[in-house]
Amino acid sequence: MEKIPEKVNKEKSKNKNASRYFQPHEEVYNINDKTLKKFKSAYWRKKQDGKTRKKNDEWAVKRLRKVDKFPGDAPVSKEKIKKYKRGSDMEATHARTNFHQSVFEQKEKKLQLAAKQAARSELLLQENSGFIEAESDEETTYISQHDIVKAVDINSASKYFELTLKDFGPYKIHYTRNGRFLLMGGAKGHVAAIDWQTKKLLCEMNVMETVQDVKWLHQETMFAVAQKQWTYIYDNQGIELHCLKALDCVLNLEFLPYHFLLASSNRKGYLSWLDVSIGQKVAGHSTGMGRLDIMCQNPYNATICLGHSGGTVTMWSPNVKEPLIKMLCHGGGVRSVTVDKKGRYMCTSGIDRTMKIWDLRTYKMLQSYKIGMGASHLAFSQKNTLAVSKGNIVEIYKDCCQETFCPFEDVLGVGHSNGFSSLIIPGSGEPNFDAMESNPYQTKKQRRQAEVKMLLDKVPYEMIHLDTGKIGQVDQKTMEDKIEESNKILFLKPKKIEYEPSYKMKGRSKGLKKEQRKKGVIEERKRDDIKEIMDLKQKEKEKNKTSVSSNNVLDRFKKKE
After folding, report:
1. d(CA 222, CA 210)
2. Greater confidence, 178 or 404?
3. Which of 435, 452, 469 is the last residue of a domain?
């Protein structure tokens, strides 16, 4: 027998490109000793064109399957999964059949998988929030904006600027949901909309009236301005689209993006909601508490919070004519109210020179601060950084003038009597944004698609409630009443029409003739009742048609007769 050589030299191929298949592999494979012995002893001879084909060790090893050092999915902590879970797990014990039980179990598995994937995707969030790192003997309150601008990069430094507008102040300001566009409204009639990052002016005008408040609507294409008498809606070119005479003498505006509602409070103590998608007023309540010059919204449940001169704060919904909650927050009048983005905490300031933090889950006070003077305006950022304006001073509180934080940016916008200032506040903005919710870099096509999707996902105003968890629950009392009424209807008899025909001569009052006359009169009366109901329904339809046609935007340009 011939000896098998220990090493076999690799034959050179005439084809130069074929050598790449025989190059040694750089990856490390987990191979047992048995497999190596098998390949070393696996030299076989196969006569082909008079030559012996020999298999290379390295080429054979490449055909082995690579072993994963970390098999399975990456582990995820239970705390992160709880963060993305929506409610408790659903039990399938109440299912009628095994098929329905399997359907419930499959749905539950899908929900658990979605929560795990959302928790695992946090690893992809590479952006971190900013911060100020002061020295041991230095306080952050003494760090000026010029020092911050020198320390940050060029892109962040460009976000600090000032607009000197002394003739038309003080200014009210508002940012869009994606933080890209800025709307300014001066008390003496100056209104301007700009892309504050590129400093591009969208429109600028003077309405020649007092401006009380300004608000962007669902997108940067339209905004509302509360003027001296009525509220107007303009587009981003400054063209007047609507005059809302139903919202008169307005002092404050708030827009609810998920419900497409424009809420307003006026100096007569009247609170109203207008649906922007259909152009109709859906609700209005008279609070009976005097002038309503302090208002904010709770972003969590879309309720409206009002501050009053008696030191109370009330929360309102368009479905109820009475306040949902009435809290005594201060001994004197309330100067400002704001709620954080998650709807957990509320901050109030009063004329008694105190600022209080309230827990809206228990409606109890958490902290109370004694400040030098009453704070005129308050604002929470996405990271719960609180801005407090006191005269010509703006203080920033962590962990806890009209100012508003810019979404997804470490920027605080301050509107004052001399114009507008954009201040850099490190750590105030959310570094990672959800592009499906609000995208700062969206294109025109994405903006149009987002508008259609928002209209399709519009939440009815009847669902505005303090506890959002009760929306999906079944109202047992009303369901029981409906079931009882339906059961009663099954045993009800039709309404009887009493009619006794008069006596007639010549055999016309016999039994058969009498019943025929009686039946004919009863059927005729039923026919008349049905006809009246149909006429009323037709009149209501005609009224609805005329009301819709009369509310056309271009009707105000018609000639008056």
Report:
1. 20
2. 178
3. 452
Residues sharing a CB contact under 8 Å with residue 353, sequence separation 6 or more, in sequence order: 370, 371, 372, 373, 374
- Spatial neighbors of 101 by CB under 8 A, at least 6 apart, are 92, 95
In this structure, are 164 and 116 located in the same domain? no
Q: Strand 230-235 relative to strand 240-248: parallel, antiparallel, unpaired?
A: antiparallel
| Full 3-state SS string of 482-538 | HHHHHHHHHCCCCCCCCCCCCCCCCCCCCHHHHHHHHHHHHHHHHHHHHHHHHHHHH
The four Cα atoms 369, 370, 375, 377 give a dihedral, to 10 degrees, of 0
Instruction: Please give the pLDDT value at position 329.
Output: 92
- pTM of the predicted model as reported, rounded to 2 decimal places: 0.66
Taking the C-alpha atoms of residue 252 and residue 266, their distance in angstroms, rounded to an integer, is 7
pLDDT at 479 over 90: no
Instruction: Classify residue 323 as exposed, middle or buried by CB count within 10 Å of its CB (0-12, 13-18, 19+).
Output: buried
**Cα(427)–Cα(396) distance, integer angstroms:** 11
Q: What is the DSSP letter of 477?
A: H
CA distance 191 to 72: 58
**Which residues pair with residue 248 across a beta bridge?**
230
Q: Please give the tally of structural domains in the chain.
A: 3
Given a cut of 50, whether residue 434 has pLDDT beyond it is yes
Q: Are residues 63 and 100 both part of a single domain?
A: no
Residue with tokens 């695992």: 120
Cα–Cα distances (Å) from 277 to 457, 516, 520, in that order, read: 12, 58, 52
**Would you say residue 75 lies in a domain?**
no
Of 224-233, 396-405, 422-431, 529-538, the one with minimum mean pLDDT is 396-405
Per-range mean pLDDT, top range of 104-118, 134-148, 295-309: 295-309
* pLDDT surpasses 80 at 259: yes
**Can you tell me the distance from the alpha carbon of 417 to that of 440, in angstroms, rounded to the nearest whole number?**
29
* Per-residue model confidence (pLDDT) at position 222: 94
* Residue 162 φ then ψ, to 5°: -135, 140
User: 230 versus 71: which is more confidently predicted?
Assistant: 230
Q: Which of 420, 436, 452 is the last residue of a domain?
A: 452
Residues ≥6 apart with Cβ < 8 Å to 311:
328, 329, 330, 331, 332, 333, 334, 350
Which residues are paired to 403 by β-bridges? Answer: 414
Mean pLDDT rounded to a whole number for the chain: 78
The whole-number pLDDT of residue 63 equals 52
3-state secondary structure (DSSP) of residue 190 = strand
Asked if 381 and 405 count as a contact pair (C-beta separation under 8 A), the reply is yes
What's the token pair of residue 243?
């005059």
Q: Which helix (H) or strand (E) holds 154?
A: helix 154-157
